[in-house]
């Protein structure tokens, strides 16, 4: 596995500061994309969908789902919301029913762990201002053909809250991501608008959403970020972004990572607990 990355230029860092996102085209070689896709296929082969009932609901509302809330330090499997029929059986093949797998692939699976190192996200995070980059969460996102659900407009800092805000998202396209199959959309400069909502854990299996600023985002200014497979999109933790449903016949897989600055305060009522002990070098 090899990447083609190099340190960010001053221009790229200035773009990130201005827009709240950065698109790094052709960031990794196709071999790395293939390695991650193949590894996920192998993991899915060992997954028994009858053992869990959780579907991922991408509406950013609070959760009362223990399977989700305990997934921060596990590799857990989430189905598309309508993956099951009325009889409880999957409507489609298992590999076409998944919404995502998360949230500790980068720590618990050796292939994803190695790939995460090759992505050099800690180096990028340092260049973008983090003092102690800490890979906190990883997700393999499927966005299945025809049924891939949307993810509503949100800021990642809502879910991975630090004081001060520090989370940076890294989104590696494992397919060409287009408007038809549900590419990312972002609000350029929207990271300057402040955090609108914060998810707080209020118990072992429950969270609540706290409204910090009820003013809506200027959604008309959202713009699509179509990228080719192997490209890396970097997202400021306060940047409003979303993805549309997949209305195409093509999949839209992606590998997503979120890093916080370990030098910031990470409250104990963030949903993802406990904080991983190991820190990036
Ligand atoms: Fe996000």
In words, what does this structure look like?
This protein has 281 residues and is α+β, with helices and mostly antiparallel strands. It is 18% helix and 25% strand. The chain contains 6 helices and 13 strands. It has helices at 10-19, 30-45, 66-69, 105-108, 110-119, 121-127, and strands at 21-24, 75-79, 98-103, 133-141, 151-154, 168-173, 184-186, 197-203, 206-211, 223-225, 232-236, 241-243, 254-261. A hairpin with a 2-residue loop joins β8 (197-203) and β9 (206-211). The mean pLDDT is 89. Residues 154, 156, 169, 241 line the site of fe (ii) ion. The site of fe (ii) ion has 4 residues, from loops.
Low-confidence stretches: none
What ligands does this structure carry?
fe (ii) ion
- Gap between N and C termini: 20 Å
Shape: globular
Order of helices and strands: HEHHEEHHHEEEEEEEEEE
- For the report, how would you describe the main beta sheet? 7 strands, antiparallel
Task: Sum up the structure in keywords.
single chain; 281 residues; alpha+beta; seven-stranded antiparallel β-sheet; four-stranded antiparallel β-sheet; 13 strands; 25% strand; globular; binds fe (ii) ion
């Amino acid at each position: 596995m090899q990447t083609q990355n190099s340190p960010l230029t001053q221009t790229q860092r200035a773009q990130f500061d201005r827009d709240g996102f950065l698109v790094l085209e052709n960031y990794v070689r196709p071999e790395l994309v293939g390695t991650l896709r193949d590894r996920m296929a192998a993991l899915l082969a060992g997954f028994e969908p009858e053992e869990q009932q959780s579907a991922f609901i991408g509406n950013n509302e609070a959760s009362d789902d223990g399977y989700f809330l305990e997934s921060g330090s596990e590799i857990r499997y989430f189905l598309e919301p309508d993956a099951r029929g009325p009889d409880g059986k999957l409507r489609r093949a298992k590999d076409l029913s998944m919404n995502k797998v998360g949230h500790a692939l980068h720590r618990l699976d050796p292939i994803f762990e190695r790939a995460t190192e090759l992505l050099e996200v800690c180096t990028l995070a340092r260049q973008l201002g983090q003092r102690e980059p800490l890979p906190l969460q990883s997700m393999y996102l499927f966005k299945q053909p025809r049924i891939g659900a949307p993810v509503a407009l949100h800021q990642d800092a809502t879910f991975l809250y630090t004081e001060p805000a520090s989370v940076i998202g890294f989104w590696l396209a494992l397919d060409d991501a287009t408007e038809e199959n549900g590419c990312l959309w972002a609000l350029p400069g929207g990271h300057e608008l402040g955090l609108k909502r914060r998810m707080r854990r209020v118990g072992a299996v429950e969270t609540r959403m706290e409204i910090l600023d009820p003013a809506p985002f200027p959604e008309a200014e959202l713009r699509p970020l179509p990228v080719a497979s192997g490209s890396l999109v970097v997202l400021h933790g306060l940047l409003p972004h979303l993805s549309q449903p997949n209305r195409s016949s093509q999949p839209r897989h992606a590998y997503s990572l979120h890093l916080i600055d370990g030098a910031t305060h990470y409250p104990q009522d963030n949903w993802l607990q406990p904080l991983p002990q190991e820190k990036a070098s």
